[in-house]
Amino acid sequence: MRMKTRSCVIAGAATILLAASIGAQSQAVQYEADVAWPKPLPNRWVLGGLGGVCVDAQDHVLILNRQDVVDGDLNGARLAPPLIEFDAAGNVVNSWGDLKVMDPRLHSCHFDPDGNVWIAASPSGMVQKYSHDGSKLLLTIGKKGVFDSSDGTAKGKPLNSNAAAFYMPSSIFVDRGNGDVYVSDGEGAGGNRRVAVMDKTGKFLRQWQPADMETVHCLTMSRDGLVYVCNRNGSRIQVYDKMGNLKKTIQVPWTPLTPPADGKITQSGGSVVAIDFSPDPAQRLLFVINQNNSQIEVIDRQSGQKVSSFGRPGSFPGQFNQAHGIAVDSKGNIYVAENRGKRIHKFRPLSGRTS
Asked: What is the overall mean pLDDT for the chain?
């Protein structure tokens, strides 16, 4: 009985209120940190930093484990696999990853309409396509071209040589209409700083370089065909059509809660690190990871206006230690992957509550 009471108190303390505006009416939307999700990991696994998270059509959640654990952790635990899949209830249903053919510093993932999973790894410059369960490596796009990796190796058989070499690919999105693959390329300072577009075979089609963007850290595509690109250090989202024409800019400003003693404002990771949409047909809301103030910013997609935010620095439920990946499932649950914090959060919407 004490355990049950304590759990309820923790969950209650982790409830976050998000005020969402719908037209002229104001409706309060509440989210609660689900402290019972995921279930304890099997086999005494220990996680390293989480590079990213993505959700498939069945609302299964895939996390990218960079495996950068402290050596002493392995005295009492086993290193968890690079990729771990959870079902909606938080049970581990699959795990995989061969570091002989993939980069250990995984950055992001994306499920295409066929259920295949695409993975970007920054240091190696590789984008890889796997079958849903990870049993087959289907395609590798890297610094030296595009390869048919169906033989299970990253080297594989060359398919073409006209794919522009990646520098540090940070995220991927596959166009639901024609299968074209959009990659944000330029996770670190320097390098390409671009959006590259390939067809489904990896053949290079086109690219554009977003203006005044030091780090092209993530991208996604809305159902109406607009490409949302993260200007991590520029505190804004730049929105393009599929040909790279700038359509609008969404500002994501931030202010230190505690003014710095020397008066110099220093970023601690950028205010636009990763983004995803709400699951409604119009994708009305944008959820944005802001590392500068350890918050999730909630933005009205059409107006670009900030609706609300939640989170703060810390290690308790609803708090973040370098959140790095975000994904939203079909029911509106929000999943946030932490790099330094080495954990995955689930925030569930609470219907019927107002404030």
From this structure: 87
Q: Is 14 left (phi over 0), alpha (psi -120 to 50) or beta?
A: alpha
CATH value at residue 148: 2.120.10.30
Q: What total of structural domains would you count in the chain? A: 1
- What letter would DSSP give residue 78? E
- Whether 30 and 349 have beta carbons less than 8 Å apart is answered as yes
How far is it, in rounded angstroms, from Cα 86 to Cα 61?
5
Mean pLDDT, range 333-352, rounded to an integer: 92
State the CB neighbour count (10 A cutoff) for residue 259. 9
Q: Is 161 inside any structural domain? A: yes
The whole-angstrom separation of Cα 202 and Cα 141 is 7
C-alpha 117/C-alpha 48 separation (Å) is 21
Q: What is the 3-state secondary structure (H, E, C) of 233-297?
A: CCCEEEEECCCCCEEEEEECCCCCCCCCCCCCCCCCCCCCCCEEECCCCCCCEEEEEECCCCEEE
- The domain in which residue 195 lies consists of 36-350
Q: Does 3 fall in a domain?
A: no
Q: What is the pLDDT of residues 51-74, one digit of tens each?
A: 999 999 999 999 999 999 998 999
**pLDDT (tens digit, 9 = 90+) per residue, 275-318?**
999 999 999 999 999 999 999 999 999 999 999 899 999 999 99
pLDDT, tens digit, 9 for 90 and up, residues 169-183: 999 999 999 999 999
* Residue 10: inside a domain: no
Q: By three-state DSSP, how is residue 182 classified?
A: strand
Full-model pTM: 0.89
Residue 240 located in a structural domain: yes
Give the integer Cα–Cα distance in Å for 301 and 18: 15
Cβ(239)–Cβ(247) below 8 Å? yes
